[in-house]
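Standup notes, structure subgroup. Blocker cleared on the nicotinamide-adenine-dinucleotide input:
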Amino acid sequence: MHKNFKNIGKVVFGRGSFSMLESILEERRNENNRFFLYVVDDFFNGKDLATRLPVKNGDVVRFIDVDPHEPTTEQIDELRDTVLKEHGLPAGVIGIGGGSIMDIAKAVSLMFTNEGSSTLYQGLNLVKKPGIYHLGIPTISGTGAEVSMTAVLTGPEKKLGLKCDWTVFDQVILDAELTVTVPVDKWLYTGMDTYIHCIESEQGTLNNAYSHAYAEQALKLCREIYLGENAGQNPENDDKLMVASMMGGLSLTYSEVGVCHALSYGLSKILGEKHCYANCLAFQHLEDYYGEGVRELKQMLTRHNVTLPTGLAKTWTDEQITAMAHVAYNLPHMWNHAIGPDWKEKVTIKTIEDLYRRM
Ligand code: NAD
Ligand code: ZN
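Run returned:
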């Protein structure tokens, strides 16, 4: 079977393009109960960007602190229920922030029209009806959540996306000026998510000419941004990273992620580590699978004076390590891609536990 994926409806790219938000929204304002719901990273609360939101009568702005935990099913259900009760059905949702906010905007837009808890829809094509209009504006680059067809949520049982054609944004605005305030460590961890998406997409059975072209270009951009003559955070590189993030996301959509993402999901689900940081923690120990990539990622960290902790496994209990190994093992699509259809003959719970013990 070949992958048949929906792409984003419309894309604006360029510095200052945030100012187009108002005119883009006007065409949609008369839908449903004629107001927009803004979900905005709490980082921007009280900042200049908050005053630039084209908020009109009836619009609802929710600032969300994404740092305590990754988006949860409970959080999405609560947001949907209170907005419906207090304001009715929005004309659309606008998400402004990082991967967490992108996923919150995508998920809640689906849950406005699909009954019951979002836990019912974690998986592929389980969503029954199209959601409402949703528009994404990333403010940190790397996860590719702005382009992907999944909204990753952590529920009581699993960390798994609501994945279907309707998850994809109707519109994104890519304005790298919004990323200027990203601190260097987050710039590196989130950018490394793109880098790892490409390495994993490339090194596996599902890689193909289409996914390869995106990965090749995104890797070239990552190398310029993190290791080139002009490496570092600057306007030119911020533009490039925004494009690399999107291309990395498209590459994995048409291929798959691999061992690092499987391990990372375990770290997030059991220990609550954030996705991009968890990827970096895991990737540095995966020489056996991605030797050249691991060496290059370490060079990037060194160049920007970011050090990752080691010896963490000593602080984990055996039960935690086993629980993480089970989360990772239960992502067969990733192992199938990374190792091959006979992966179960090569990878056991014990193999995965040993990988965690290296961290
Ligand atoms: P995030 O959204 O959690 O944000 C990371 C940090 O950066 C936060 O502290 C945030 O406040 C801060 N931040 C964002 N923009 C900023 C700015 N302009 N200036 C200063 N600080 C800023 O992190 P992320 O790494 O972008 O996303 C991680 C999430 O994305 C996870 O929940 C993960 O599951 C999800 N994800 C989704 C997909 C997908 O395809 N849907 C893919 C990968 C990851
Ligand atoms: Zn990722």
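Discussed briefly. The pocket of zinc ion (ligand 2) is lined by residues 143, 193, 197, 261, 275, 279 (CB under 6 Å).
Next: hand off to the docking folks.
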